């Protein structure tokens, strides 16, 4: 019979999974993630969710990356016994190189074109970013470092990201988003309707 400690671990694990899939659903990528209770990695190292990454087109069946949450390993190296929240990932460069040489590659090296700044709307902002990725060829980055608006705008300027989307609680309630052209300074409040609208929105705001 399971003891209370085991029951608590099960409850904590279930709560973490619910939170994880809520974020994945908000990002609009829940359908691309598969949960398996049989995946096990480094039981003496990892303290939370573990994952493996696969190519969607299936050109290679083995994973191209893997990792997980490990809150205790940093404290073990430092010798202070503290827990430091940390998530790590490692990539199989040889597998990725093989995939890149197998026909036309969909990967393109360039900086972000759009920077989404959520103001208390992180989960929905992930979904907004994914909507833009699906409907345009633009690279989209989401502010998840907890920076205030001014600091986030400074980051966009420093990284020369041409478009910034400001998405706060008022915009969420109104079904809108503020789009700012960082080059021309033009700023518009756009109503979020359908993904087919996004290509024309950025075309109209080109400097």
Automatic annotation (TrEMBL):
EC number: 6.1.1.21
GO molecular function: ATP binding; catalytic activity, acting on a protein; histidine-tRNA ligase activity; transferase activity
Residues annotated as domain Anticodon-binding: 113-194
Keyword Ligase in record: yes
Reaction(s) this enzyme catalyzes, per UniProt: tRNA(His) + L-histidine + ATP = L-histidyl-tRNA(His) + AMP + diphosphate + H(+)
InterPro entries reported in the protein's UniProt record: aa-tRNA-synth_II/BPL/LPL, Anticodon-bd, Anticodon-bd_dom_sf, HisRS-like_core, HisRS_anticodon
Span of the signal peptide: none
Keywords: Aminoacyl-tRNA synthetase, ATP-binding, Cytoplasm, Ligase, Nucleotide-binding, Protein biosynthesis
Primary enzyme class: ligase
Pfam assignment, any one: HGTP_anticodon
Gene3D superfamilies referenced in this protein's UniProt entry, alphabetically: Anticodon-binding domain, Bira Bifunctional Protein, Domain 2
Gene Ontology BP, a term: tRNA aminoacylation for protein translation
Domain Class II Histidinyl-tRNA synthetase (HisRS)-like catalytic core, chain residue ranges per copy: 8-94
Family recorded in the similarity comment: Belongs to the class-II aminoacyl-tRNA synthetase family.
UniProt name for this protein: histidine--tRNA ligase
Lineage, top ranks: Bacteria, Bacillati, Bacillota, Bacilli, Bacillales
């Amino acid at each position: 019979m399971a003891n209370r400690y085991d029951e608590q671990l099960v409850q904590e694990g279930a709560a973490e999974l619910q939170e994880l899939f809520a974020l994945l659903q908000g990002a609009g990528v829940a359908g691309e993630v598969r949960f398996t209770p049989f995946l096990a990695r480094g039981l003496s190292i990892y303290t939370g969710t573990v994952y493996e990454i696969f190519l969607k087109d299936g050109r290679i069946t083995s994973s191209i990356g893997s990792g997980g949450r490990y809150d205790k390993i940093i404290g073990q190296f430092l010798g202070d016994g503290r827990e430091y929240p940390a998530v790590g990932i490692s990539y199989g460069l040889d597998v990725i190189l093989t995939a890149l040489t197998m026909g036309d590659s969909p990967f393109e090296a360039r900086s972000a074109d759009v920077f989404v700044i959520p103001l208390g709307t992180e989960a929905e902002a992930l979904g907004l970013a994914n909507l833009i990725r699906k409907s345009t060829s633009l690279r989209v980055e989401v502010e998840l470092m907890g920076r205030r608006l001014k600091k986030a705008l400074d980051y966009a300027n420093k990284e020369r990201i041409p478009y910034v989307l400001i998405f706060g609680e008022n915009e969420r309630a109104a079904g809108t988003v503020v789009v700012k052209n960082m080059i021309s300074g033009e700023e518009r409040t756009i109503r979020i309707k359908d993904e087919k609208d996004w290509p024309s929105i950025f075309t109209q705001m080109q400097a």
